[in-house]
Amino acid sequence: MPMEMVVTSPFFPAVAAVFGMTLFTPRFGTLDRIPVKSARPLGRRRRSLAFIAVIAGLLTFFLPLVTTNPAVMGHTYWCPWKIAWKIYEGSLPRSIPFMTTAAFLPLVFAFGALCLNSSRDVLAKIAIVGLFTCLASLDDKSSFEALFYGKLTYQNHSLVRHVGFGDLTFLLFGATACLLYIAFNEALDTEAAPKIAIPRTSFGTRDPKFVHAVIRPPSEKD
């Protein structure tokens, strides 16, 4: 007979929190260091690509990427927006998948950083935090089960899963990885310089001229 229990593993959230503190906490001895030149903002091309990646990631909030089997309230496919609305209405319990919800926040911060024309270092740090948040969201299996079914069911010491959210995590991870690639790849801003044809002039092809002189011996009068 399946056993019902509620267990939430704090491993992935703890790893994401430790990494975030390590990334944004300044190191000791910064006063004795040589000041580093501040990074330049993104170019027009990289900025446009970054906007596309961020908007694509945010659009997953409205896509039915979460599946339930059996159906819940007559629905098998759910989008994060519908889930949030049902929680607000009280139709679903307030068992919010914390790390999956937090995976959208780096994209929101990245959108604000792009609007403020921030440097590539700021964008890269946001993207790195987003990647680790997406990895930590894989531990939200129990939260999704409690959200839709109100309980967790274990069989042979393993969780019986009825909710699938791997597509959502994959797309969020992909959008954040693209953002990190755009932030570090400065070659996306460089364009091939146009070749300028240099006309040839007659001065460069003129043959050298020689002066013919005759040296005569000195006369007896001299």
Main beta sheet, described?
3 strands, antiparallel
How helix-rich are the residues, as a percent range? 40-55%
Distance between the termini: 136 Å
In angstroms, what is the radius of gyration? 33 Å
Question: What structural class do the secondary elements suggest?
Answer: mainly alpha
Order of helix and strand elements from N to C terminus = EHHEEHHHHHEEEHH
Instruction: Please report which band the strand proportion falls in: under 5%, 5-15%, 15-25%, 25-35%, 35-45% or over 45%.
Output: 5-15%
The neighbouring-strand order within the major sheet is 1-4-5
Number of strands: 6
Low-confidence stretches: 1-8, 27-32
Helices, by number, come to: 9
Q: What overall form do the CA principal axes indicate?
A: rod-shaped
Average pLDDT figure? 79
